[in-house]
Write a structure and sequence with these properties.
By secondary structure, the chain is mostly beta strands. 0% of the residues lie in helices and 44% in strands. It has a single domain, classed as Rieske [2Fe-2S] iron-sulphur domain (Rieske Iron-sulfur Protein), CATH 2.102.10. The strands form 2 sheets. A 6-stranded antiparallel sheet has the order 1-9-8-4-3-2, with no helix packed on it. It has a 3-stranded antiparallel sheet with strand order 5-6-7, with no helix packed on it. Strand 6 and strand 7 form a beta hairpin.
Length: 105
């Protein structure tokens, strides 16, 4: 599924997109794009409106932090957002859900 043109999400930024009913946070980290579920696991905050510092995404509601490369919470790897497979094609960010059989990044 196509999310956005690469210019719509400059390095160091995060953007929220809704694709097929899924809210996603598209994060442009120096070196690539990462996509995680856009709903914070704490109380449903909008991660696509959070703050991205390096690979760390902070929820704007209560400050929960996640590594966007793995989806793991900053304090507990047992708490993890779903991570989406990404590909840049024709200057657009394309995503696909990782299947249950795929290993976590």
């Amino acid at each position: 599924m196509r999310t956005c043109h690469v210019d719509e999400c400059p390095v160091g930024n995060v953007r929220e997109f809704i694709l097929d009913g899924q809210i996603l946070a598209v994060c442009h980290v120096d070196g690539g794009f990462y996509v995680v579920d856009g709903i914070c696991l704490h109380q449903g905050g909008p991660l696509g409106r959070g703050k991205l510092m390096g690979c760390q995404l902070t929820c704007p509601w209560h400050g929960w932090q996640y590594d966007v490369t793995t989806g793991c919470h900053a304090s507990s790897s047992a708490v993890r957002l779903s991570v989406w497979q990404t590909e840049i094609r024709d200057d657009y960010v394309w995503v696909a859900p990782l299947s249950a059989a795929d290993p976590a990044p």
